[in-house]
Amino acid sequence: MAPKRDAIYAQPLGQLSDFRFDDRVAEVFPDMISRSVPGYSTMISTIGLLAGKYAQNNSRLYDLGCSLGAACIAMKQHVQATGAEIIGVDNSEAMVRRCQSHVDAWRGDLPVNILCADILDVELKPCSVVVLNFTLQFVEPELRAALIQKIYDALLPGGILILSEKVRHDDPTADALLVDLHHEFKRQNGYSELEISQKRAALENVMRIDTSEIHAERLSAAGFSTVQNWYRCFNFTSWFAIK
Ligand code: GEK
Prior knowledge:
The chain is an alpha/beta fold and 243 residues long. The protein has a domain at 40-168 and 207-242: 3-Layer(aba) Sandwich (Rossmann fold). It is 41% helix and 21% strand. It is built from eight helices and seven strands. The chain has a seven-stranded mixed β-sheet, with helices on both faces. Strand 6 (226-233) and strand 7 (236-242) form a beta hairpin. Helix 1 (23-36) packs across helix 4 and helix 2 packs across helix 3 (70-78). It is globular. It binds ligand GEK.
């Protein structure tokens, strides 16, 4: 069945409220994210591959900000470690209500448990893989370093964090051009000018993006010995960081 099409911002909305991960968003989320994030499917399938290589026996694999569980599913399909468990965490009830059944529909050997919780509050048990796929950008900027440190501390030696984010650039010319290329990507995927501008305004207060340099420095400062940017398309990028 084709995913339900995102038309949330298709009509003029007099009063634009801040973007929220509510039922309306959860219902159209797979269509929204795949038409909005260049390289999303590449990032999801690569998370599966990396998890397959780095998962350790009898450890946990966390997907923090799991939404409908796309990264949980990719990991479930690739990981062969014995005694391992995948844990998806999201604080949107609308997402979590749908996520467990999405994930259960896919075959795999590992148990997957989805929790409704704030990733800032949740205690992380010893783990070998942590995924933050476009989640950190929704966390208060001043709380990001402590979250990355909590992840580093919970990872076992040799464990991996995969971090994907939308980023901004200090060079205004580069920033404007990359934003423009992203909007062109959205136009090509059927979003109108009205949808692009209303969504942008709705996200302004809730998604505060950092530069690539800030992300890389934060990962190194937490203690990761290898920090490598492995994907980039316009202003969307992903790193792996190995303990
Ligand atoms: C994917 N990773 O499909 N605690 C828990 N969840 C949070 C928090 C928080 N503090 N802040 C935001 N979220 C997914 C896509 S979407 C990205 C991730 C996007 C959750 C929020 O509820 C939402 O489901 C998710 O993080 C961000 O690979 O829509 O751009």
